[in-house]
Amino acid sequence: MDAIINLANNSIEFFKTVVEFAPKFIPGVILTLQLAFFSIILGMIIGLVVAVLKLTKYKWLKKIMNVYITIVRGTPLLLQLYFIFYGLPSLGIMIDSFPSAIIALALHNGAYISEIFRGSIESIDYGQREAARSLGMTKWQAMKRVVLPQAFKRSVPALGNQFIIAVKDSSLASVITITETMLLARQFGAATFNVFPIYFTAGVYYLIITMGLTKILSMVEQKLKVNER
Amino acid sequence: MSMIEIKNLHKYFGELEVLRGIDLTVDESEVVCLIGSSGSGKSTLLRCINFLEEKNEGEIYIDGQLVTSKDINNIRQKVGMVFQRFNLFPHMTVIQNVMEGPITVKKMAKKEARDLAMALLEKVNLLDKADEYPAMLSGGQQQRVAIARSLAMEPKVILFDEPTSALDPELVGEVLGVMNDLAKEGRTMIIVTHEMGFAKEVADRVIFIHDGQIAEEGTPEDIFDRPENERLQNFLGQILV
Ligand SMILES: Nc1ncnc2c1ncn2[C@@H]1O[C@H](COP(=O)(O)OP(=O)(O)OP(=O)(O)O)[C@@H](O)[C@H]1O
Ligand SMILES: [Mg+2]
After folding, report:
1. What is the pLDDT of residues B134-179, one digit of tens each?
2. Do A136 and B150 touch (CB under 8 A)?
3. Strand order in the sheet with B213-218
4. pLDDT tens for residues A73-125?
5. What value of ipTM does the predicted structure carry?
6. Of A109, A181, A182, A217, which has fewest CB within 10 angstroms of its CB?
7. Contact yes or no for B86/B146 (Cβ under 8 A)
8. CA-to-CA distance for B171 and B4, rounded, in angstroms?
9. Do B162 and B193 touch, CB atoms closer than 8 A?
10. Burial class of residue B108 (count of CB atoms within 10 Å of its CB; 0-12, 13-18, 19+)
11. Full DSSP string of chain B
């Protein structure tokens, strides 16, 4: 009997804490959304540029892009964040914490997204390029009008995956003093000694964001399916 | 007047010499059919003419002009190509496929390109499919769209690489019908085909390619009724039986 009463009390206490702290998370959640949004948009631009540059005939460009991808994929994101925020100042380059986080996250996403784009560009039937070229299009016109639209469509599922990773990875920005969702959670936890409901609340916010993103992406995917049998 | 003139064309893939000195002249309004067994170099010859493959040796003149790799984009506007597997752009509707060349390459106004595309779709009898996507069309319909797409650039020559080989037998006729109309209009065409009946009917000249060389050429009657070359006799024997 005591155990049940205890459990009920604990549950009430738990939800009271959740309700109390949920609104206090809003500024952190907004930061999380901003970090994710800008790092995804910039990451897409970087990814597209890198993927296209890798397809040009210049071998040295391809090499540089491969070095970039190797470094980003071969080192922890945590280290990349430290490098830009704490490392670069020793070279005389000072960047504020928020732009530092955006740069690090965007470069990180960009490397993965470029590989996604490259894969889907390569998956487009070579006959498509030949048909475009035989109409008299330049290589770039064929890329822009024929290959990229099809490749982009094929990238959507993998991009969605990467976007979700980007949302979760943005939590690492907390290590360079950005008070996004996870850093707030740590601060609230330390102040109240009541970590469980607080981390629970943070988790719910992440789930809301990632589930919303999944929903949007599956709508985009449906929309793009119109011209398939 | 000669529309295409090819002199001593050689093409290698690595060690393999696929074209071994082709000399070929095609006159304006002439319809030339290329026949020959698999691997003899027919596709490679067509692809060299519009530089989808880079030749190793020899000269190609189109409309009197020597083609160099610098002006291939201009040359390709003069040389249309229809592929075995259609290669329509799947993300564009039928009419967008036909408008794409004029708009992107010739910078034609949308309205004008649309009118042109409508006229061409009417010609290939597909006006009612203008707003469908290629995936909704049969193979024969797709190939007719591909022909309209290449006509939209108003090419001087159209190259066809086995345009009916990927089609179900009952769809072959509609594509050959369109090609027959083009021949009657006086279009210059080079056609790689295994449809000997069609070659007999539309070709002004038939060329038998063997092992990267022109082994025999002549009128359809010469080639089909009085073949001289032993390889050609064998080839026809295999096909017509
Ligand atoms: N891109 C390539 N790389 C290497 N070899 C090639 C390439 N394209 C064609 N070949 C070779 O060149 C030869 C001629 O090929 P081609 O496609 O021109 O023959 P074809 O006469 O069109 O035959 P088919 O009737 O089967 O289409 C073949 O031996 C083929 O294997
Ligand atoms: Mg072939």
Report:
1. 999 999 999 999 999 999 999 999 999 999 999 999 999 999 999 9
2. no
3. B79-82, B157-161, B188-192, B31-35, B205-210, B213-218
4. 999 999 999 999 999 999 999 999 999 999 999 999 999 999 999 999 999 99
5. 0.92
6. A217
7. yes
8. 31
9. yes
10. middle
11. -EEEEEEEEEEEETTEEEEEEEEEEEETT-EEEEE--TTSSHHHHHHHHTTSS--SEEEEEETTEE--GGGHHHHHHHEEEE-TT----TTS-HHHHHHHHHHHTT---HHHHHHHHHHHHHHTT-GGGTTS-GGGS-HHHHHHHHHHHHHTT--SEEEEESTTTTS-HHHHHHHHHHHHHHHHHT-EEEEE-S-HHHHHHH-SEEEEEETTEEEEEE-HHHHHHS--SHHHHHHHHHHH-
**Rounded distance, CA A145 to CA A137, Å?**
9
Cβ-Cβ contacts under 8 Å, A125 against chain B:
87
Annotate A80-110 with b (16+ C-beta within 10 A) or e (fewer).
Answer: bbbebbeeeeeeeeebeebebbbbbbbbbbb
Q: Do A135 and B52 touch (CB under 8 A)?
A: no
The pLDDT tens digits for A173-183 are: 999 999 999 99
- Which tokens in the block code for residue B111? 């309205």
Residue with tokens 């964040």, as numbered in its chain: A81
What is chain B's length?
241
Chain B: residue whose CA lies nearest to A149: B91
Contact between B156 and B5 under an 8 Å Cβ cutoff? The reply is no
Residue B21 CB-density burial (10 A; 0-12 exposed, 13-18 middle, 19+ buried) = middle
Q: What is the 8-class DSSP label of residue A55?
A: T
Q: How many Cβ pairs closer than 8 A exist between chain A and B?
A: 69
Please state, in angstroms and rounded to a whole number, the distance separating the CA atoms of residues A145 and B67: 26
Q: How far is Cα A74 from Cα B182, in angstroms, rounded to an integer?
A: 59
- Cβ atoms of B141 and B148 within 8 Å: the answer is no
B36, B42 contact by CB (below 8 A): yes
Residue-level pLDDT at B238: 86
Which of A6-10, A46-50, B100-104, B165-169 has the weakest average pLDDT?
Answer: A6-10
**Ligand 1 near B41 CB (within 6 A):** yes
Closest Cβ opposite residue B83 in set A127, A146, A229: A127
Of B50, B88, B89, which is closest to A134 when you measure between CB atoms? B50
Chain A residues with at least one Cβ partner in B under 8 Å? 125, 127-128, 130-138, 141, 145-146, 149-150, 153, 226-229
